[in-house]
Amino acid sequence: MNTPPILTAGGPGIPASLLRPTLPDPAQPRARYDAVVVGAGVAGLAFALRLPEGTRIALLTKGALGESNTRYAQGGLAAAVGPDDDPALHEADTLAAGAGLCDADAVRRLVEGGPAAVEWLLAMGTRFDRDPDGTLALGREAAHGRRRVLHAGGDATGAEIERALVAKVRERPAITVLERAYAVDLVQDGGRCTGLVAELGAASEPVVLRAPVVVLAAGGAGQLWATTSNPLGATADGLAMALRAGVAVADLEFAQFHPTVLRLPDDEPFLVSEAVRGEGAFLRDADGERFMPAAHPLAELAPRDVVARAIQRQMGLDGADHVALDLAHLDPDAMRARFPTIAAALRRRGLDLATDRIPVAPAAHYFMGGVVASPEGRTSLPGLLAIGEAACTGVHGANRLASNSLLEGLVFGMAAADAFEGSRVWGLGSGDGVVEPWSAPKSGTLPPNPSAAVALRSRVQRAMSRHVAVVRDAAGLAAAGAEIAAVAAAAAAMPGDGRAVHGLRSMALAASAVVAAAYRREESRGGHFRLDFPDSDPALGGRHLLFGGGEDGWRYGGLG
Ligand code: SIN
């Protein structure tokens, strides 16, 4: 029998000034919907489209519709649809990658839902790549025992899924798409989530959107770090809103660093898909030698956390800020055809995917933690659902298996909609309100000093990249905590509630929670590697670190 885990006392905490929600003002304009969905990636879109046609949904997205983390997913969508595959094999690979922290039931729901979800996407008009005989083309990625990764346009899978679902959303008049909308905070009445405070234009005052269900599909957290594969919008908004609302969150110490993000001086990071290694690319050190065969029996196809750490170590040995990805031994035309988006991005930077050594390094990519949720999205707050990357269902455990994230957004987005549709069973009601006419947003003031907020935001990102990345230790985490607390104090003193200041406070809040969790888990597991605790602690296997559910805030427990 395992010894109960001991929760480390003290250490970095969450600044109280960041935990205050924005309370709705009764004078604020209101509108009423059947559901309010925050986020328009695969999870939010699947949820909205799965509901019956007439369902009145407000779909909020921070940028233009179609711009989301989903759009940048290259490798693809994992599902056991191949003739030699089976959901049980997919389940085994997912559990192995998750390093003892997966929720077995959630994983089974995910993999068993894969084939039907692919059928649904095809019915929605998604055009996956096909083999010459017309069957779905399947790629291989790290830690998958079978070729089971569906892709589209070679390496533009997320973009194709987003295109197809956005086109369907545009055909639905009952879905009100609110672009450039900024979700501020959740509204609660009598222990239920009953709406959302949101800003609906760059300079508008907040409004309250009421609905019997609010869905957090607000995506990831990559922008908490200075180097990330994620787009600018991935600023952990869902996590921050949940923290301010006192909703249970978990596994915040588990962030995934993608091993191969392009590293060129003074250039934006750009993802070089794991599928490239799946097709046989090698990683080479500064002397041109392969270093992965000595690091793991699966070499370049080891789980993502293993490859990221091996690269980080090799960069240290080489005194370099990158290693090299090499495809020169592979068929050049086949590689350029298989990865047209990556090849074009590299060509614009003067590199040839097929023949040059591509400089790559790990960068923040995916957040395994989030709002504790069941596969149907149910959270600790009735009326609030969380799906996709914003949720923590336990399907990824301590380390997500490649290409399981689009699948999660899809399968659990659909499951949440199906459960909501039968919501009489769990008492949400289906929304009896009438859509009230919008009051025109009043012109508000612009953020008081956006450049000061941006400078403070970079301090958070630098501290996270320096101290809370592929490897961590107590001293570094304490230093990151102190820096973020200083930013929080400066942010609290900033005048105004504009988007830039509110966004800064949200980022500092989410980052401080990540640091506090990483400090408290005194072991190494999956994406969380502590230099001062390099081994896994058997007592912490299957134990999630939760915040919001215990007397002092933090506790170890199960997700259920
Ligand atoms: C990739 O193409 O390497 C990213 C896919 C994923 O993160 O699952």
UniProtKB/TrEMBL annotation:
Keywords tagged on the record: FAD, Flavoprotein, Oxidoreductase, Pyridine nucleotide biosynthesis
Enzyme class: oxidoreductase
Cited InterPro entries: FAD-dep_OxRdtase_2_FAD-bd (IPR003953), FAD/NAD-bd_sf (IPR036188), Fum_R/Succ_DH_flav-like_C_sf (IPR037099), Fum_Rdtase/Succ_DH_flav-like_C (IPR015939), NadB (IPR005288), Succ_DH/fumarate_Rdtase_cat_sf (IPR027477)
Catalytic activity reported: L-aspartate + O2 = iminosuccinate + H2O2
Sequence similarity: Belongs to the FAD-dependent oxidoreductase 2 family. NadB subfamily.
UniProt cross-references to NCBIfam families, sorted A to Z: nadB
One annotated Gene Ontology cellular component of this protein: cytoplasm
Domain FAD-dependent oxidoreductase 2 FAD-binding per the UniProt entry, residue ranges: 34-406
Enzyme Commission number: 1.4.3.16
Pfam families given in the database record: FAD_binding_2, Succ_DH_flav_C
Name recorded for this polypeptide: L-aspartate oxidase
Cofactor: FAD
Gene Ontology molecular function: L-aspartate oxidase activity
UniProt subcellular location: Cytoplasm
Fumarate reductase/succinate dehydrogenase flavoprotein-like C-terminal domain segment(s): 457-537
Physiological role: Catalyzes the oxidation of L-aspartate to iminoaspartate.
